[in-house]
Write a structure and sequence with these properties.
Belongs to the ribose 5-phosphate isomerase family. This is ribose-5-phosphate isomerase. It comes from Laodelphax striatellus (Small brown planthopper). Its EC number is 5.3.1.6. The chain is α/β, with parallel strands linked by helices and 250 residues long. Helices cover 36% and strands 23% of the residues. The chain contains 6 helices and 14 strands. The strands form 3 sheets. The protein has a 7-stranded mixed beta sheet with strand order 3-2-1-4-7-13-14, sandwiched between helices. Strands 9-10-8-11 form a 4-stranded antiparallel beta sheet. It has a 3-stranded antiparallel beta sheet with strand order 5-6-12, with no helix packed on it. Helix 2 links the parallel strand 1 and strand 2. Helix 1 crosses helix 2. It starts with a helix and ends with a strand. The relative contact order is 0.16. The model has no long low-confidence stretch (mean pLDDT 96). The chain binds ribulose-5-phosphate.
């Protein structure tokens, strides 16, 4: 009995994963096909969805012989660009990008994003801020009315290591909620970002109607805060892959 219920559970888990991966793949494909042109500079986001975008980009670059320079937003993105034999660039040589394609943890009705589930929010925000447009690709579970409806892990905030306690206290005192230091896998100490910093995850109170532009500004002003995973007013377009195989754009 135990075995059969285990197999049923793991089978339904793998069906869900298949559906999510297919949703990510179709969203990524549409976004790359609609936003990448010859002779362009593209920011490459981080996470699991972006893998599908880079795969599609590599296909197009090869078959259409496109000249595309890719600027990574993380060590993971850099590796993906290299593995897919794409042309690697950086912000020193390409401070202006045509487009950045990235994933998100949650997208609300105003296209405000929570990002940084993978801890790469600072470089993602820098690269996005240098691009003419930020295009988001996501599966259907990321779409929500209000932040916090779908994504339950809170808003990631990158901090300078010595400041993680005072920053946590200040956020809690100012806005309420709960702030935790993100730990590395197997709890082997704090997770360290590509920039050598720590990540705080802020589980904000969902009963208050928080004004995200001012929340973002207030938190960014706390000494020791490097960047927040709140992306306000930056998104140009979102591609959501749906369970029925279609893509919804907003
Ligand atoms: C990493 C990010 C990712 O884009 C976000 O976490 C979404 O990841 P995934 O595509 O794996 O769901 O912001 O810092």
């Amino acid at each position: 009995w135990h075995f059969s219920s285990y197999f049923k559970q793991s089978r339904s888990h793998s069906l869900i994963m298949e559906s999510l991966n297919e949703a990510k793949r179709i969203a990524a494909r549409r976004a790359i096909d609609e936003h990448v042109e010859d002779n362009s500079v593209i920011g490459i986001g981080s996470g699991s969805t972006i893998v599908f975008a880079v795969t599609r980009l590599a296909e197009r670059v090869k078959s259409e012989k496109l000249n595309v320079i890719c600027v990574p937003t993380s060590f993971q993105a850099r590796q993906l660009i290299i593995e897919n034999k794409l042309c690697l660039g950086d912000l020193e040589t390409h401070p202006e990008l045509d487009c950045t394609v990235d994933g998100a943890d949650e997208v609300d009705r105003d296209l405000t994003l929570i990002k940084g589930g993978g801890g790469c929010l600072t470089q993602e925000k820098i690269v996005a801020s240098c691009a003419k447009k930020l295009v988001i690709i996501a599966d259907y579970t990321k779409k929500s009315e209000r932040l916090g409806d779908q994504y339950k892990k809170g808003i990631p905030i990158e901090v300078i290591p010595i400041a993680y306690v005072p920053v946590s206290i200040k956020i809690r005192e100012h806005f309420g909620g709960n702030v935790t230091l993100r730990m590395a896998k197997m709890k082997a100490g704090p997770l360290v970002t590509d920039n050598g910093n720590f990540i705080l995850d802020w589980n904000f109170p969902t009963d208050k109607n928080l004004d995200w532009p001012s929340v973002n500004e207030t938190i960014t002003m706390i000494p020791g805060v490097v960047e927040t995973g709140l992306f306000v007013g930056m998104t140009s377009k979102v591609y959501f892959g749906l369970p029925d195989g279609s893509v919804k754009t907003t």
